[in-house]
Design goal:
Layout (H helix, E strand, L loop, with lengths): L2 E3 L7 E3 L2 H30 L23 H13 L3 E5 L5 E5 L2 H8 L10 H11 L8 H11 L5 H4 L2 H22 L4 H13 L9 H17 L7 H4 L3 H29 L3 H11 L4 H7 L10 H32 L1 H15 L16 H13 L5 E5 L4 E2 L5 E2 L4 E5 H5 L38
Parallel strand pairs: 4-8
Antiparallel strand pairs: 1-2, 3-4, 5-8, 6-7
Bound molecules: protoporphyrin IX containing FE.
Length: 457
Amino acid sequence: MLQLSLSWLGLGSVATSPWHLLLLGGASWCLVRLLVWIYTFYENYCRLRCFPQPPSGHWFWGHMGMVKSNEEGMQLMTELGHYYPDVHLFWFGAFYPILRLTHPKFIAPVLQAPAAVAPKEMTFYGFLKPWLGDGLLVSTGEKWSHQRRLLTPAFHFDILKPYVKVFNKSVNIMHVSLCVFVCMGWLKLLWGFMCVMLLSISGLPCRSPSEYIAAILELSSLIMKRHFQPILYVDFLYYLTADGRRFRKACDLVHNFTDAVIRERRRTLSSQSVDESVKAKAKSKTLDFIDVLLLAKDEHGEELSDEAIRAEADTFMFGGHDTTASGLSWTLYNLARHPEYQERCRQEVRELLRDREPEEIEWDDLAQLPFLTMCIKESLRLHPPVISISRCCTQDIVLPDGRVIPKGNDCIISIFGVHHNPTVWTDPEVYDPFRFDPENPQKRSPLAFIPFSAGPR
Ligand code: HEM
């Protein structure tokens, strides 16, 4: 048997097997890793001391108790903005510090850094990966640039223009629904709602949500819930929970649906030449997103794989549905609270549609609605549909006041915080469309208004 002298450990000379050696080696490796981690954590902790943090952090949960996805949480964020107008530190649990940036000057070095220096952080975006794969929202670096180049033609004006017809149709459906509510009176709201549902079933206004839409809504709410459960950030643990299993099930449903659409479209496309199918589509209806993806080719003539198409289609469904719904709802809400602005918008539209039959907005009209545009922008400022995005600093990043975000830390760019920052916006809580009056441009940073984010991704 192998003899090993462990006298330096005070154990004298012991007989030991290779397993003992392996165990000792493993234990030493773990110990070294732990010490390195503690040292790195402590060093980082000291470097982060220059950033203020809200009081009342729990020793284990940190500031998690302050993060709430409801009105109270938003009010708290607004209050924090008054105390910390540029940057502060938040602890997501005992070991996960995050810097929250709330001033245009302070978000600039992060948002405008090359994608390799401040890529999307993968803790939160990683939750989306099983659903959205390597779609534009989750991918970074070279992969992101490649996909982005391929997808740029999807947003060419010629492709977007025919969608104005779809918008008009959707607006008409919304009007009918609202008229039913108004005519029935609010007391009979429930009855009216049921009528709308019945009309929908018979093919008139909005359809009842399909399984696919229900799955998307479930995925979105499960992801939000997971944000507040740091222990479940570990995939292995998450997928053991009931929520994790529901997440997987909903992912499968969404993927099967998108796959079926792609297969069907590929079959149709392969029976026609590319030109033929584009012409046929252009004649009959709008060229939709799946068609554009199926026809996309990179500079080497390479097409997107079915997996890549699915990732993008799922990404656009996720990125496009709740943001626009929220943006529209808040605009309507703000106009309802300010009848004087609502009336001005109505007059602007009426003027535009005067003597027009049918009364439909066209593409070129969109630039002829300056006041409505100001109202929408102000609503996106006051109630941004995406309240924050996050980035990871792969290098030290110097802030304008000389403080440094140490390499390896994650940052939250608080879109809500910037839009409500009292040092950037006068009376930030007031809905005032004239802030965006093009005839009276105000001196402010281009990063003061970032509902759609900015910079490389
Ligand atoms: C009011 C409407 C919208 C708002 C406020 C909004 C906001 C945002 C924001 C803040 C980001 C940046 C995310 C990040 O950098 O981490 C983003 C990215 C993205 N959004 Fe939207 N969005 C809106 C509508 C849409 C629509 C209608 C679609 C698609 C149909 C869409 C698709 C995407 C995609 C694909 C990305 C990723 C882009 C990239 O990384 O290159 N969004 N959006």
